[in-house]
């Protein structure tokens, strides 16, 4: 899922043992010891449904926290009651073994990049980083999510174009705080000369919210508030199975990026939020669904 927000003069927020050794010759384990070691770390064939897995929502990796909770039920008995960090490391090693070497390196570098930012950046308002429905959302949206029916969602939305839904979601106070937080992050980047990764190759200005601490909040936003609506309105696109997100802010102004051309988002669902202070414009245009052969084709007047 892609989450986008625009702000600015206009900005846009778019809602992923070192062991010493004294022996001169290495000892070779017997076949029995090798088999025993494998049995200790081998995953179960069936999940242990009586086991209550740990909560991994605070873990920042390329894998959804639910993956670790589900995989934990398959761990061998000797690991089920181990410390969370031990289980997490073991499961991460298993998942990484299925990734191509280049992808593993990229994921590791991105993880280190995020950790470096979070270690040094001081948030302006830490309350923004923990989702609080009563402070973030308007009451009509909260009520619709609580009822969680197609009828409740239709009461708060309009459909300006087939498959495009508009509705009130965020409180003005939250939007103001989010704009201030993004501006604070941009100031930190400018002062420290920290080189950040921009949200995409099309925008020169903006930041990935996931990279400076918003991952847990956006993950909860996706699973508990976006997925219920996506399940109803995007069932053909498997809206009920959203498992990753790319939340970022891009900025437009007269002396920066002025607009963004037509493109196709690499996501099943995109949540667009227009943020800002005083500006004109900010319109969002849609031109229907594209087939795989014409994703980047030019448009023509009919």
What is this structure's SSE topology?
Layout: E1 2-8, E2 10-14, H1 31-41, H2 65-72, H3 77-80, H4 84-96, H5 101-120, H6 133-136, H7 139-147, H8 150-154, E3 157-161, E4 164-167, H9 172-192, E5 206-208, H10 215-233, E6 246-252, E7 270-275
Parallel strand pairs: 1-6, 1-7
Antiparallel strand pairs: 1-2, 2-7, 3-4, 5-6
Could you please describe the fold and organization of this structure?
With 302 residues, this protein is an alpha/beta fold. It has one domain. Helix content is 38%, strand content 12%. The protein has ten helices and seven strands. The protein has helices at 31-41, 65-72, 77-80, 84-96, 101-120, 133-136, 139-147, 150-154, 172-192, 215-233, and strands spanning 2-8, 10-14, 157-161, 164-167, 206-208, 246-252, 270-275. The strands form two sheets. Strands 1, 2, 5, 6 and 7 form a five-stranded mixed beta sheet that branches. Strand 3 and strand 4 form a beta hairpin. The radius of gyration is 23 Å and the shape is globular. It starts with a strand and ends in a 27-residue tail after the last strand.
Number of helices: 10
Percentage beta strand: 5-15%
Task: Write the element-wise H/E pattern from the N-terminal end onward.
Answer: EEHHHHHHHHEEHEHEE
Q: Using the CA coordinates, give the radius of gyration.
A: 23 Å
Indicate the overall shape: globular
Core attributes:
302 residues, alpha/beta, 10 helices, 12% strand, globular
Brief summary:
With 302 residues, this protein is an alpha/beta fold.
């Amino acid at each position: 899922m892609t989450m986008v927000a625009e702000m600015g003069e206009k900005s846009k927020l778019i809602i992923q043992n070192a062991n010493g050794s004294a022996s001169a010759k290495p000892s070779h384990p017997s076949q029995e010891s090798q088999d025993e070691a494998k049995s200790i770390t081998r995953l179960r064939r069936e999940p242990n449904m009586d086991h209550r897995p740990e909560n991994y929502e605070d873990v920042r990796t390329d894998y959804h926290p639910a993956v670790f909770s589900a995989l934990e039920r398959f761990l061998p008995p000797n690991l089920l009651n181990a410390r969370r960090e031990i289980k997490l490391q073991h499961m991460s090693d298993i998942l990484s073994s299925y990734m191509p070497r280049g992808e593993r390196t990229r994921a590791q570098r991105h993880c280190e990049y995020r950790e470096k930012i979070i270690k040094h950046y001081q948030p302006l308002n830490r309350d923004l980083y923990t989702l609080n429905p009563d402070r973030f959302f308007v009451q009509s949206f909260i009520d619709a999510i609580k009822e969680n029916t197609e009828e409740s969602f239709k009461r708060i939305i309009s459909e300006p174009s087939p498959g495009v839904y508009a509705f009130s979601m965020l409180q003005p106070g939250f939007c103001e705080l989010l704009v201030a937080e993004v501006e604070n992050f941009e100031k930190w980047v400018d002062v420290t000369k920290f080189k950040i990764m921009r949200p995409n190759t099309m925008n020169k200005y903006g930041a990935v919210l996931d990279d400076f601490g918003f991952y847990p909040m956006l993950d909860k936003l996706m699973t508990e508030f976006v997925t219920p609506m996506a399940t109803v309105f995007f069932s053909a696109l498997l809206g009920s199975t959203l498992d990753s997100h790319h939340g970022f802010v891009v900025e437009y102004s007269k002396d920066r990026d002025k607009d963004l051309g037509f493109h196709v988002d690499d996501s099943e669902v995109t949540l667009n939020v227009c943020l800002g202070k005083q500006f004109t414009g900010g319109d969002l245009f849609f031109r229907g669904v594209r087939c795989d052969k014409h994703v980047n084709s030019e448009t023509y007047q009919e």
